[in-house]
Amino acid sequence: MAEQDTPILPAGFPGGIFPAEHKEATAGLPIRRLPVPAVLRVPLKQHIGNPAVATVQPGDRVCKGEVVGKPEGFVSVPVHAPTSGTVTAVDDYPAPHPSGLSAPTVTIEADGADQWTDLTPHPDFEDLRPAEIRSLVRQAGLVGLGGAGFPTFIKLNPGPDRPVDTVLLNGGESEPYLTCDDRLMRERPREILQGGSIIAYTVGARRLVVAIEANKPEALSAMLGAAGGWPQIEVVAVENRYPMGAEKQLILSVTGREVPSGRLPADVGVVTQNVGTAYAVFRALVHGEPLIERVLTASGGALSAPANLEVRIGTPIEEVAAACGGYSDLGRLIMGGPLVGSALHGTAPPVVKETNGLIFQSRAELADGPALPCIRCGACVEACPVHLMPNEMYNLARSKELEKIQDYDLFDCIECGSCAYVCPSRLPLVHYYRFAKNEIQAKEREKEKADIARRRTEAREARLQREKQEREAKRQARKKHARAAQAGEGDSGEDPREEAARKAAEKRRARRGVPAEDSAAPPRNGTAAGGGSEPTR
Question: For position 537, what pLDDT does the model report?
Answer without folding.
Answer: 35
